[in-house]
Specification:
The protein has one domain: Cupredoxins -  blue copper proteins (Immunoglobulin-like), CATH 2.60.40. It is built from 3 helices and 9 strands. It has a 5-stranded mixed beta sheet with strand order 3-9-8-5-6, with helices on one face. Strands 2-1-4-7 form a 4-stranded mixed beta sheet, with no helix packed on it. Strand 1 and strand 2 form a beta hairpin. The longest helix has 17 residues. Bound molecules: copper (II) ion (CU).
């Protein structure tokens, strides 16, 4: 028990270094709806489109590439058609890689955040996400080994208009 706590504390610390969004969930044990400002925020009331993504045991998301316009809120209906548990986690590639490494060390690690969804074989779930920044948002399955096997994809967010303000570094809470 003590060892496990220590491992979890270490995992939380490592995640804190990797991504503020994961750390918030790991340390305070409850959920804010701030989302992660670097990739967007979940706003269920503003869904403009629904897309379906299938998870397969061949370590693929189908489709693995999605396109949205900046500011668009998507409902992503995710269906696991395989025999294995899969998950989808939205984030930037650096965070996803760091998280995938941790999952290999601590495969029992559980998480529940607005930017991720874990689905057992045959299950369907959905994520609602607003893509507020132009660029690329990556997604991946972080079940141990799946990311490395290529289970990942991208959402390309097309810019509507160039903006003078650079929000890249902002990860603040807008209250
Ligand atoms: Cu998977």
């Amino acid at each position: 028990m003590k060892l496990r706590n220590t491992l979890l504390a270490w995992a939380s610390a490592a995640l804190a270094a990797a991504t503020p969004a994961f750390a918030a969930g790991a340390t305070d044990g409850h959920h804010h709806d701030h989302g992660n400002a670097t990739i967007g925020e979940a706003e269920a009331s503003q869904v403009s489109r629904t897309v379906e993504v299938e998870m397969r045991d061949s370590m693929q998301f189908v489709p693995s590439k999605l396109s949205v316009k900046q500011g668009e809120t998507l409902r992503i209906v995710v269906k696991n058609t395989g025999q294995l548990t899969h998950e989808i986690v939205l984030g930037d590639e650096k965070d996803l890689k760091a998280h995938a490494k941790l999952m290999k060390k601590f495969p029992e690690m559980e998480h529940a955040e607005p930017n991720m969804l874990t689905l057992a074989a045959g299950k369907t779930g959905e994520l609602v996400w607003k893509f507020s920044r132009a660029g690329v948002v990556n997604f991946a399955c972080l079940q141990p080994g799946h990311f490395e096997a290529g289970m990942k994809g991208q959402v390309r967010v097309a810019a509507i208009k160039a903006r003078a303000k650079d929000t890249t570094k902002e990860n603040s809470h807008a209250h």
